Amino acid sequence: MSSRNRQSGMSLLGILIVMGLLSFFLMVSIRLIPTYMEGRSVKSALELVAEGATSKQSLSEITKRIATTFNTNRIEAIKPREVKVYRDKGKIVIDANYETRTPLFDGVDAVLMFTDNIIVID
């Protein structure tokens, strides 16, 4: 009987490597998912502001609504003063693109860029 027929399954080293990889990806997910979810909250808050706004409103009124909505939704990833609100060709543009750093482990950070947070109000 050859030893090859008796072998089945993974070795202890193989199991440790798989567990290590799974642990790594679980840790990265646990650290990045809250940041990603807050980015989705920023997008939905801006859409909420845009639904109730018209292009005839002043920029300061829209900025105040953004600050109130961010405060209500407890958004801390981006400050209301960092959101650019300006007029372009008669339309109001809300530009809330930002990036954030999330520490993963000792000396290694993940940078998440949220570049789809531009809303145009007709």
Total DSSP helices = 3
Coarse morphology: elongated
Poorly predicted parts = none
Strand content: 15-25%
Question: How would you portray this structure in words?
Answer:
It is a single chain. 48% of the residues lie in helices and 24% in strands. The protein has helices at 3-6, 12-51, 59-72; strands at 84-88, 91-95, 98-105, 108-114, 118-121. It has a three-stranded antiparallel β-sheet with strand order 1-2-5, covered by helices on one side. A two-stranded antiparallel sheet has the order 3-4. α2 (12-51) crosses α3 (59-72).
Helix/strand layout:
Elements: H1 3-6, H2 12-51, H3 59-72, E1 84-88, E2 91-95, E3 98-105, E4 108-114, E5 118-121
Antiparallel strand pairs: 1-2, 2-5, 3-4
Helix pairs in contact: 2-3
Keywords for this entry:
122 residues, alpha+beta, 48% helix
Short description:
The protein is built from 3 helices and 5 strands; from the N terminus they run αααβββββ. The protein is α+β, with helices and mostly antiparallel strands and 122 residues long.
